[in-house]
Design brief:
12% strand, alpha/beta, Rossmann fold, 7 helices, five-stranded parallel beta sheet
Length: 128
């Protein structure tokens, strides 16, 4: 798989699915890709969800590991403007528009099963 931007929903499956087959697929989806990216908004969402369901220590550890294993892309001016355009055009949430804009600017595939991303014609999507 080419350069990949991972959506929050990917990590929800990776961390919370009770199905071994899903966990194997998410692990494979990480191993197969050399250029792995996440947006800072994904770090925010994963930290928050983990904080709520598993506590601060796990949230800190989990996001630290993500920062080690993925290149974290900050929301810069270019991503902010592109995100606003995509949000307006496709009526996306702020987080989804930022993730889509990150994939668009990097020329990367967005790994997500979120139907909102499939409507964004400018971004290629894939799922496990």
């Amino acid at each position: 798989m080419p350069k990949t931007v991972y959506d929050t929903r990917f990590f929800i499956e990776h961390y919370y699915s009770r199905e071994n087959a899903v966990l194997k697929k998410t692990k494979d989806a990480i191993r197969k890709v050399k250029e792995r990216f996440i947006s800072t908004i994904v770090l925010h969402e994963i930290y928050y969800l983990t904080l709520v369901y598993e506590g601060r220590e796990t949230a800190i550890l989990r996001t630290s590991l993500l920062e080690k294993d993925f290149k974290v892309i900050k929301i810069d001016v270019e991503i902010a403007k592109s995100s606003a355009e995509l949000r307006h055009k496709y009526r996306l949430s702020v987080a989804d528009s930022i993730i889509a804009a990150t994939a668009l600017i990097l020329g990367a595939t967005c790994l997500s099963d979120d139907p909102h991303f499939k409507s964004v014609k400018e971004v290629k999507t894939s799922w496990i």
